[in-house]
Amino acid sequence: MKGLDWRLALLAMLLGIVVGGCGAWQWQANSYGKALADQASDFQRERGAAASAVIEWQEAEQSSRRALEDRLQAEDETHYKELFSEQQTQARLRDRLATADLRLSVLLDTSAEGGGCGVPTATGSPGVVHGATRAQLDPAHARRIVSITDDGDQGLIALKACQAYVRALAP
User: Fold this and answer.
1) Which residues pair with 134 in a beta bridge?
2) Which of 73, 96, 151, 171 meets the CB 3.0–4.6 Å disulfide criterion with 102?
3) Is residue 141 domain-resident?
4) Residue 100 belongs to what domain range?
5) What is the pLDDT of residues 112-155, one digit of tens each?
6) CA geometry: angle 83, 71, 88, nearest 5 deg
7) 63-87 pLDDT tens trace
8) Within a domain: residue 99?
9) Quick count: other Cβ atoms within 10 Å of Cβ 147?
10) Is residue 76 part of a domain?
11) Considering the domain boundaries, does residue 8 fall inside one?
12) How many domains does the chain have?
């Protein structure tokens, strides 16, 4: 029986090792599974926080973009109104020049050498304007001068609009 007791003790020990190993294996698997679950939940929370931060940033950028677009739209409307008003003024001026309702004149420098340059001076003009001698411009030249000033005015209005646009974009 001594051989049987020895075998039985060995079998009991082997069975204890197997049961203990299985128990340790299960305990470690549960512990590792819990650690993985905690890690996954932490990762999900971090992803949620990052997504919320990105959404808030995107909303802030969209609102600032909308505000910029609104300011630029207002600037465009102002620019258009100024340009339209200036074009109307120039058109009225051209019409008045064309109908001889308005005549452009220039001051003559009678103190320069050559005096009148072929323009006769009136010695006692009955007009309302007193002072320096004036000469009227040919209507075609007057229209050309008005056209040149119109182009200059439009250029200045466009420059003002560009400067306002750059100021609106600059931080």
Assistant:
1) 107
2) 96
3) yes
4) 70-110+133-171
5) 565 455 555 555 455 555 567 777 777 777 778 888 888 888 88
6) 10
7) 999 998 998 899 899 989 988 998 8
8) yes
9) 12
10) yes
11) no
12) 1
